[in-house]
Design brief:
It contains 14 helices and 21 strands. It is of the alpha/beta class and 397 residues long. The longest helix is centred in the last third of the chain and has 15 residues. The structure holds cytidine-5'-triphosphate. Cytidine-5'-triphosphate (CTP) binds next to helix 12 and strand 16.
Length: 397
């Protein structure tokens, strides 16, 4: 997927993140897009027109009343020729103007004249972002079908920490690619479980596993990029929350089951979570203390619910149920046994005989159904996700 042949009108408004617009132009062009920049007066305080025009290899439009620009390309044409208008960074001020239809400069006039897709990547101080005025303006824009990309969480140039950070240029390019990608799963609902579960032993200790959640999250993102309405139910992971889907964070297997059931009905369900098979029989209400002379500790465990098996046997069974399995030997036979026991349609069998998979960037899997087994080469987890989603698209009516 590339942005070849796509024209993006990039409106750069005021804010310290405007300097990142330079990288964004480069990355969009690397992906094949042609970029036409529009710079607001505020934006021009942070980045020069020369930088943007040199990187975009296009003139930069700034002034609504400049005869030269108007003669070359009026704001109506600017708005209409673009396949996407991307406002990045979008300041609180420009967002407010958009929400209220104000037109006192070229950027806001062009936005009011637009009749195609528009996306904004907000960037501002966290308190400005959280202000009910900004939130109401953003809600208005979303209602009108404008895409809101970000803002992200993190430390800000102003020294504060919170939500308001400009999305990284690479993430904005990924969003742009996803925006233009075909949407074969539009109208389909998908459930993905991901990550480990944490089963509490006492208020400060849990029984956990090393699942990173990367594979599950990559699948959720690939499903969302294909147009599915995705609910990601994830155990505790150390990953940024993926955009464009409903994320339900959980701790335990019981919570994961409840959240997965609440996400039904779904057309597609992918169970990538490494669910603890067992949980402590009792959870101590106070921290367990060492007792003098004690050298051993034993605990009793009880079985956790099998989330995949429960949902694959439920009344509202999703049309396609995909499980994962970690196998060290007889990969296909074991996976087919698991598939039958759990009533799954496919099992993505991980060959873990060569060593650890958890936390690695790559995965070597075999896609197993009742009839056949397809061994895939070693791929990145993103590639595994894309290939799996491709298979899902082919299999659905
Ligand atoms: N699974 C689940 N709920 C559980 C246990 C597993 O939903 N309580 C799902 C996992 O998300 C995965 C598949 O079932 O899709 C894995 O099944 P499991 O029987 O745990 O297989 P392995 O992890 O390979 O472990 P083992 O072979 O030891 O049973």
């Amino acid at each position: 997927m590339t942005l070849n042949g796509k024209q993006i009108l990039l409106i750069v408004s005021g804010g310290i993140a405007a300097y990142k617009a330079a990288v964004l132009v480069r990355r969009l062009k690397d992906a094949g897009a042609s970029v036409v920049p529009v710079l607001t007066r505020g934006g021009a305080q942070f980045i020069t027109p020369l930088t943007l025009s040199a990187l975009a290899e296009n003139p930069v439009y700034e002034d609504l009343f400049s005869l030269k620009d108007e003669a070359e390309m009026g704001h109506i044409r600017l708005a209409r020729e673009a396949d996407l208008i991307l406002v990045a960074p979008a300041s609180a001020d420009l967002i407010a103007k958009m929400a209220h239809g104000l037109t006192d400069d070229l950027a806001s006039t062009t936005l009011l004249a637009a009749n195609g897709p528009v996306a904004i990547a907000p960037s501002m101080n966290p308190v400005m972002w959280a202000n009910p005025a900004t939130q109401a303006n953003v809600a208005t824009l979303m209602q009108r079908g404008i895409q809101v990309w970000g803002p992200a969480d993190g430390d800000m140039a102003c020294g504060e920490i919170g939500t308001g950070r400009f999305e990284e240029p690479e993430d904005l390019v990924a969003r742009t690619l996803a925006f233009f990608a075909p949407k074969p799963l539009a109208g389909k609902r998908a459930l993905v479980t991901s990550g480990p579960t944490h089963e509490p032993i006492d208020p400060v200790r849990v029984m956990a596993n090393r699942s990173s959640g990367q594979q599950g999250q990559a699948i959720a993102s690939a499903l969302a990029a294909a147009g599915a309405e995705v609910t990601l139910v994830t155990g505790p992971v150390n990953l940024p929350q993926p955009p464009g889907m409903t994320v339900v964070p959980v701790q335990t297997a019981d919570q994961m089951l409840a959240a997965a059931q609440a996400a039904l009905p779904a057309d597609i369900a992918v169970f990538a979570a490494a669910v603890a098979d067992w949980k402590p029989k009792t959870t101590a209400t106070e921290k367990l203390k060492k007792v003098g002379g004690q050298d051993e500790l034993s605990m009793s465990f009880v079985k956790n619910p099998d989330i995949l098996a429960t949902i694959a046997q439920a009344d509202h069974r999703p049309a396609l149920v995909v499980g994962f399995a970690a196998e060290t030997e007889n990969v296909v036979a074991n996976a087919q046994g698991k598939l039958a026991r759990k009533n799954a349609d496919w099992i993505v069998a991980n060959d873990v005989s060569g060593g650890a998979v958890f936390g690695e960037q790559t995965n070597t899997v075999t896609l197993v159904s009742a009839q056949e087994a397809e061994a895939w080469p070693t791929l990145t987890k993103d590639q595994v996700a894309e290939r799996l989603v491709q298979k899902i698209v082919e299999s659905l009516p």
